[in-house]
Amino acid sequence: MSAASVKGWCPGALRPMQSGDGLVVRVRPFGGRLDxxxxxxxxxxxxxxxxxLIDVTSRANLQIRGVSESSHRxxxxxxxxxxxxxxxxxxxxxxxxxxxxxxxxxxxTQALAAELExxxxxxxxxxxxxxxxxxDDGKSRVxxxxxxxxxxxxxxxxxxxxxxxxxxxxxxxxRGEVVTTAVAVARWFxxxxxxxxxxxxxxxxxxxxxxxxVLRGEAxxxxxxxxxxxxxxxxxxxxxxxxxxxxxxTLNQLSGCGHALRMTPWRMVLSEGKxxxxxxxxxxxxxxxxxxxxxACSGAPRCREAHADxxxxxxxxxxxxxxAERLHVSGCAKGCAHSGAAAITLIATxxxxxxxxxxxTRDEPILRGLDRDxxxxxxxxxxxxx
Length: 386
Prior knowledge:
5-stranded antiparallel β-sheet, single chain, 6-stranded antiparallel β-sheet, 25% helix, 10 helices, alpha+beta
């Protein structure tokens, strides 16, 4: 049985996942960054070996869609030439690292990322596939709301700390201790918090597990920055990707700017050093575009598990969702695009759409079997207007 036929984990390049439109091949940029040559190369590979569609994921990765079994090896060869491939699938799965996109030349973010990548490759740790790290070492934290189990952050005075997700305080560390401490926290979790290959740090701590004293600390992490939006920043131009998916031509246009891309877990990318907003098709450039409030998975026919075309429905509903609300449209009950709660969650089923308010796909719906056309015709149904 090929690795591609097995399901139930986060896909990678070496271990892709089968979907309704072929194999999904996830590319994990080293240091959360792609240079211009890598961007152009990925656009070419997506066109040549996939169906031309590229996902921007909530784990700050790219996914090439529609890859066939026969073209997978050719795609891997291309990724290797772009230096975007790990030596093996286990190393790849451990390299699950979010990196703040707001680092500046000369700070320590990229060096920390490279050191952590190397340490994880050498560690031989057996961690759940969703277990991850965040390097969020700016004056303000920007990744606090994103999934990670071990966090490298700063305190209010600018000192570095390592914090287990779910713990309020972190351990103050010297620069040379950061990576070894982060790996030690992960090693402790691997020994105590993994059950049947699964587990998350915050859940482990909430159940009563206590970090060893040597890994505990009293350092208060830096404050949280307001949510990033499309616009110009000192580091470059931040743009959203509508529903987290773009055609290869859009990625190719971004490469033509000659700027590197910094990946984010917000379905946005930062065009490094760019001083004007990109205008490629499918990019969100307005800070308060309604599409930013809507999350949708690939949906049918792209995913074989999905019961409906989620993105068409999401696009139709986006302008009608209140400014403070967030809508999640899921093609099935798994909730792959968004595991957390949303003000409004629509779950496609064989009998229509189920509606959850203030919850996730795992919560009990308040309405079942809603008709798609009825929802589009009268979106007040979602907000409790009926």
